[in-house]
Design a protein that fits this description.
- By secondary structure, the chain is mainly alpha-helical.
- About 75% of the residues lie in helices and about 0% in strands.
- The longest helix is centred in the middle third of the chain and has 52 residues.
- It is rod-shaped and about 155 Å long.
- It starts with about 20 loop residues before the first helix and ends with a helix.
Amino acid sequence: MNEEINPEVINVNSDVPETNAEPQKSLSDKVESLAAEAVNYAGMSLAELSASFEALAKSADRMKRSKEADAIKSAFYKKLIKEKAEAGVAGAVVEPEDGDEENTEAPVEPVEAAPANPFEALENGFKAFYTSYKKEKAEFNKQQELVRENNLKLKEMVIEDLKALVEKQEDVNLTFPEFRKIQDRWKEIGPVPAQSFRNINDTYQLYVEKFYDMVSINRELRDLDFKKNLEAKTQFCEEAEKLAESEDVVTSFKELQKLHEQWKEFGPVAKQYRDEIWDRFKAATATINKKYQAYYEGLKGQQEENLARKTALCEKVEAFAAKEVKDSNEWNALAKEIEEIQKEWKTIGFASKKENQKIYDRFRAACDEFFSRKRNFYTSYKDSMNDNYNKKLSIVEAAEALKNSTEWKKATDQFINLQKQWKEIGTVPRKKSEALWKRFRAAADDFFAERDKNAKPENDFHANLKAKQALIAEIQAYKPKDAEADAEALAAFQEKWQSIGFVPFKEKEKVSADYKAAIKEKFPVSAERKGRAPRREAPKSEKEVLIRKYNQKEQDIANYENNIGFFSLTKNAEPLLAQMKARIEQAKVELKELEAQIRALGEMEE
């Protein structure tokens, strides 16, 4: 009895995915490529990449992971080339090519001795693993191809047997058991070469249809077969519907492909169920396909967003890398910002396969540029500190050569000059700074201690110290009045301070600090202006210049006379009084000279 052609074995809807169908294969490959990017091989070190490849090469499923192997190889040699260039290691990096599996060792040729290559062990180890793996993979593929070719021959034999069974037109009681055996044989045979799959499968389905439609079989046995096929295909529909509800879209899509392969292995169902069961399976397939397409489109949109975020981070780092930075504090602050940017980069997903490596290379280049400039700055900074060290060392040596001098005035001036030079020199390396300063301070202390011991009466440093301490006490006791009175008092205090000579060297810094603190407390506004009087207009003539000098000299004499009254209240003030009287006499002589010069200019003008 002839049956109608089974619609299940015909591609009735182009939207239904089938094995080896080109549109579905292309879409699947895209998602597999995106999944392969889940591991950030570009962010791994050479040692991590080598370890990853070694683990892959030893895994049980290594023959199915060739794309992953190629991705690790590409990342390894790209990083190796870059790091060799950065380290200044000579010699080209030669990647093992596919098809080089027969030559696992490179010929050894005599060469001149080259600089040590710190990457040699890693490079040779990785190359050995990769070459061994590719050799094993090539042999595996070769064997698999032979198996598929053999499976193709076996399936062709099954089809010939099925064709012969259809043409016999014998009693169904004899042909049907043979048909079952042929089906079982077909299912047991493994995959065939991809280019032969569709043709061999379509031929088999054709003769299956002919068997059901052309052979007069027992209706009871045929209905039983239809029932078994319906039960199997109903289960396929249920599994497909569960996959359609799953949130794991990629896995659901892959599992759907397997269900379609199994669907084709079963024969038709009863005619009244054929459209219904196929429509149910097709509906679940359509749902999964739509979710899969939406997932792919969403993934594409996310990748575009990731690219935009990573581009913004690149622009930030590039701006830092191009910025003019002048001190170490700013370098360190920018370095911390870049470290935070690098942390943020790691939280952003992948860009598209086309753009992902490009944007990573751009980011890495910007970071490398910044840290390269930072290293250059610190190299220059270190050189500058070493130069400063040498300058200060020269000062220390000069101080040590000077500390035994007995030319007190000359040596004191020289020490003061050395101190000024010391302050003008920049920083030196921290480990050497303290020791250098101790040497300089020790030489100065030795000299000034000896100078103070041998001080003459007119240079009584301890008396000067007491005079300055008394002046500080007078400033602290002063009660501020109006602005004009305070200004006059401040000027008087400053003049007194300047008229007092040197104090013992060890007390110099403390007494100076106490004086500044007292002035700042009692005259805060004037202290902020550093005690300077308001600027006056520049003199308009030589005569005016002389008149101003004359007036200033008169003021100096008045101040000196006031100071004599002040010093007379302190003990051991004889040297200071003598010094002040000498200044007054000298000032009076200069005053007479100025008066004569002014008179001469006046006569010329007449």
